[in-house]
Amino acid sequence: MGALFLSACSNGSPTTAGTTTSTTSAAGGSGGRTTTTVAPATTTSTSSAAASAAVQNLVATAAIKSALTAAYVAHNGLPAAEVAGTAPNSVYYAYLPSTSTYWAIANFLPTATASQNTDVAMQDDGCCGIFTMTSGGSWTYAAGFLGGPCTGQIPAALEELWHLTPPVNCGPVTTTTS
Asked: How far apart are CA 21 and CA 57, in angstroms?
């Protein structure tokens, strides 16, 4: 499995803690669907209106990483017991006040005992996910990527904040503004 891992960054921004809750409901005989909600705690306020409107780099807590893993597993239909979680130093997490949206990207690792099907599903762009969550909502899997998100998969402000350079093998994409 040859996945390129991104190195997470932190600029000393406020830490956002979260509370994770999960509910499972049967979906017609096709198994259960897990919805994970992470309610971020209030961050410290800034004295400038301009500063509060700027994108905020946040530290991903264990609860955030767990919720992202649950959203990744649910989207990809993988057995939760075969996904170890987020890869070390791969989670980027931020808040866009202008749209009241949290964004995260992460790489995921299979467990040492994962089946061949899971190992294969988690290769290439199956390794990684882009996630969004509106204030008071739950994490939604938005897209996969390989090496790094392509231009337009995440807002330009996040590419700049996280110092991401899109891979050269990206095709044309629609720009994301929220």
From this structure: 24
